[in-house]
Design goal:
The complex is a heterodimer of chains A (466) and B (319). By secondary structure, chain A is of the alpha/beta class. Helix content of chain A is 39%, strand content 15%. Chain B is flat, with a radius of gyration of 28 Å. Classes of the chains: A alpha/beta (466), B mainly alpha (319).
């Protein structure tokens, strides 16, 4: 029996305090380990939809998920917006087995997760949903025979953008049809005519000050494959041979393109270096819209997605096709939409999946951020009008983007080659070397062979038909 | 032994026991409360530091790619690191280069400013605030700000150099200039170190300066023979923490350079990060983390060993 009357309550409170503390901490730990991404409460299926993107994309996705909930009673969708560090988030979710039901995914990660069985093979669902069956085989991420990691909701291509105010002479305006595409020399000529130093002199004038350039003729950032990959393909080159097992980036065709791009900056002085662009990586540089608007550049090679930004600005923008070497070519790509293999509600999840990749379920197609993927949006006149007949899409869009994508696009190599993260780790620094202009393209690309060749593990197969 | 003595002894023993148990009860109580109050910190350390470290140590012996099943590979990751991974050595070299530049520069700048701010001038508080302000700028904002300062065409640095007729640089956009540029930028963040120096300077006894003055010593001798020796413990502390900090440099590469151009700014932790989260090779990334831990520990131990020779403690052995 305790002698001190105060000791009993104090002892008990101490113990309970301790116990509460431990319980709370343990609870916190469990909370940190996460619950399930999907739950079912009262017969309702709760799904998670994870995505990246700007504020515009966020608004559009939230609108899409709400519309889905309306048309699919009994299903609730929680949109999870991850504006930055997406791969980090994905990796932690995979490690804790909490992948959302439906999610955006970069191609290399989608392939990896498919091979690990973390995401569902959507091949069995293709026939059932017209949004999926109405696509070409190259619009899917195949990781084996009848094995599909996913398909994009939207597609993008590479284009030549320009500020219309700077093109008073119609003969100099970038062509908007693939078969009228400029040769490299024609592009260079126009870019030279549009490059001005602080005193208004051109690179061809005497007394031109290369270190005081006010307006560059063209921006063609080497830091992204959206610039160089379509051009090497246009010249008949590629990163690897068709099997994806032999390095070919040092072929004369590829070297020519990379040297041309380097010369634009350092020999002809008509394009900004990565430094002059304001960022070694395009992420830190001013946007293409701003660069065109401020007349820092007259033309710029950039992706179709820029149209959203352009449409919201006062800039009088124009769209042309890329210059051509042997044949007019642009690059096409779209991020992979995936469905978790461990979803608690596969039926509802695949419904959401198909709904979310449907070209008619988002206003981002009309706003210019995305191009639809289903074939009908490129062949059926009313379907084409549905997303391109508006103020954002200029008249030349029909030939410069719609037809261009349909007839002249090749798929981004990072979406078909295996082991891309490891390849990029050595490829990116090498291209930075070309971009900084200290070493000729051939030397860099020859030196790269020994580094990339051991990393080549082939290509993912794309069948001729679904 | 008589009964009386025995009884007395028993009483004494009881009293002693009682006394002992009283003391031990008190100390037990204190121990319990101490433990209880320290518990959040202990749990935090165990859950968020010790356990992840232990897990990463185990993972470093596997080939775990996130999403797959890890298999045990022994010390293969460590062997690969030293024998077949050029980026490991490259990133370690870049980080060492940065440390060798940034640590001395920051310490010298911080020390010099602290000396100035220790002077008796009017408006001292205002100066101290102004010099500390850059430290309050979030590191991401700071990185973006410096990106503009470094812009070769219209950045502050090149504009100034051009006006002076001096040669310009491509700063962070050049393979050779990127690390020196980031070192220059690091000196901007001297505020915290400066405050510690300032606190140290205010603890230097006045009478020592007076003694030097009486002996005819000027400002240099006062600095050389009083300030510097008396400040060595503070200098030592700042040196150790700065080195540990610079070996973990990450933001500049992540925000400003993405490790480029041509890996010239691929700092160790940035490389570790891309290995873990871009390539998803968590096993190898864990091995990289442990290698860094060992490297930093060796440097720290070496510094502590060397401190006997150059760090002066007024209290003698009381360190």
């Amino acid at each position: 029996m305790p002698t001190d009357p105060r000791s009993l309550p104090r002892g008990l409170s101490r113990r309970s305090f301790l116990g509460a503390g431990v319980a709370a901490t343990a609870g916190l730990g469990l909370f940190g380990c996460g619950g399930q991404s999907t739950t079912k409460s009262g017969g309702q299926a709760n799904l998670q939809f994870m995505y990246w993107g700007s504020a515009n994309e966020k608004a559009a996705i939230e609108q899409m998920t709400k519309a889905f909930e309306k048309s699919h009673s009994g299903t609730k969708v929680q949109p999870v917006h991850v504006p930055g560090d997406y791969e980090t988030k994905v990796n932690t979710l995979v490690a804790s087995n909490n992948l959302p039901d439906v999610a955006y995914m970069t191609a290399p990660t989608a392939y990896r997760l498919a091979e690990q069985g973390k995401i569902a093979n959507i091949y069995p669902y293709i026939e059932k949903y017209s949004q999926l069956s109405g696509r070409k085989p190259q619009n899917f991420f195949w990781y084996g025979d009848k094995q599909v990691a996913g398909t994009p909701a939207a597609s993008e291509i590479s284009l030549l953008w320009y500020n219309k105010d700077l093109f008073t002479d119609a003969s100099m305006t970038p062509p908007a049809e693939a078969d009228k595409a400029w040769s490299w020399d024609q592009l260079l000529e126009v870019a030279t005519a549009l490059t001005l130093d602080q005193n208004g002199k051109r690179p061809s004038d005497s007394g031109f000050k290369a270190d005081r350039i006010r307006q560059f003729g063209l921006s063609a950032p080497l830091s992204t494959q959206w610039t160089w990959y379509p051009l090497i393909r246009s010249n008949g080159g590629d990163v690897t041979d068709e099997s994806g097992t032999k390095y070919t980036l040092n072929s004369p065709e590829c070297v020519k393109v990379f040297q041309d791009l380097q010369d634009l900056i350092y020999k002809h002085k008509v394009a900004p270096s990565p430094a002059q662009l304001g960022g070694g990586d395009t992420a830190n540089a001013p946007t293409t819209t701003v660069q065109l608007q401020t007349k820092r550049v007259a033309m710029a090679i950039d992706g179709q997605w820029t149209l959203l930004d352009m449409g919201e600005s006062d800039l009088k923008y124009g769209i042309g096709v890329l210059p051509t070497y042997q044949e007019p070519i642009t690059q096409e790509a779209g991020s992979c939409r995936v469905m978790s293999s461990s979803t608690k509600h596969p039926e509802q999840a695949i419904e959401l999946y198909a709904y979310s990749v449907d070209g008619s379920n988002s206003d981002l197609f009309k706003k210019g951020l995305w191009m639809p993927v289903e074939t009908k949006y490129y062949s059926d006149a009313s379907a084409i009008d549905a997303w391109t007949k508006n103020d954002v899409h200029p008249p030349e869009y029909r030939t410069a983007a719609v037809d261009y994508r349909l007839n002249n696009s090749v798929r981004d190599f990072t979406q078909v080659l295996k082991n891309v993260p490891a390849i990029q780790e050595v490829l990116t620094p090498a291209i930075e070397q070309i971009a900084t202009g200290k070493v000729p393209a051939k030397t860099v690309l020859d030196g790269l062979e020994a580094k990339i060749q051991p990393l080549l593990k082939g290509r993912y197969p794309i069948p001729n038909s679904i | 032994m008589t009964d009386e003595v025995a009884i007395r002894r028993t009483a004494v023993t009881r009293a002693a026991r009682k006394l002992r148990s009283g003391v031990s009860g008190q100390s037990r109580l204190e121990r319990r409360w101490g433990l209880l109050l320290a518990l959040p910190a202990i749990i935090g350390f165990v859950v968020f530091s010790l356990a992840p470290m232990a897990v990463s140590a185990v993972l470093s012996l596997t080939d775990w790619t996130i999403g797959s099943t890890p298999s045990f590979v022994g010390v293969d990751n460590y062997v690969h690191m030293f024998s077949q991974d050029p980026l490991f050595l490259k990133s370690l070299g870049v980080t060492t280069y940065y440390t060798l530049g940034a640590v001395p520069l920051t310490l010298v700048v911080a020390f010099a400013i602290a000396m100035l701010l220790n002077a008796k001038v009017r408006g001292l508080g205002v100066y101290r605030t102004i010099y500390y302000l850059p430290t309050l700028v979030p590191s991401v904002a700071n990185a973006v700000l410096w990106l503009w300062i470094f812009n070769p065409d219209f950045g502050l640095l090149n504009s100034t150099l051009r006006q002076l007729g001096a040669p310009t640089s491509n700063w962070v956009f050049s393979e050779t200039a990127v690390v020196p540029s980031l070192i220059l930028m690091s000196s901007w963040g001297f505020g915290n170190i400066m405050v510690i120096f300032l606190a140290g300077l205010q603890g230097v006894p006045r009478h020592l300066y007076e003694a030097v003055a009486i002996d005819g010593g000027g400002a240099w001798r006062q600095f050389r023979h009083v300030t510097l020796p008396m400040m060595t413990p503070v200098l030592f502390y700042n040196l150790v923490t700065s080195i540990i900090g610079t070996f973990q440099v990450f933001n500049q590469a992540y925000i400003m350079t993405q490790g480029g151009p041509n890996n010239a700014s691929t700092f160790y932790v940035y490389y570790l990060y891309t290995t873990a989260f871009t390539k998803s090779e968590m096993g190898y990334a864990s091995a990289l983390a442990w290698a860094l831990f060992v490297i930093v520990m060796v440097i720290t131990v070496a510094l502590f060993r060397s401190s006997n020779r150059w760090v002066y403690y007024e209290m003698g052995a009381a360190r």
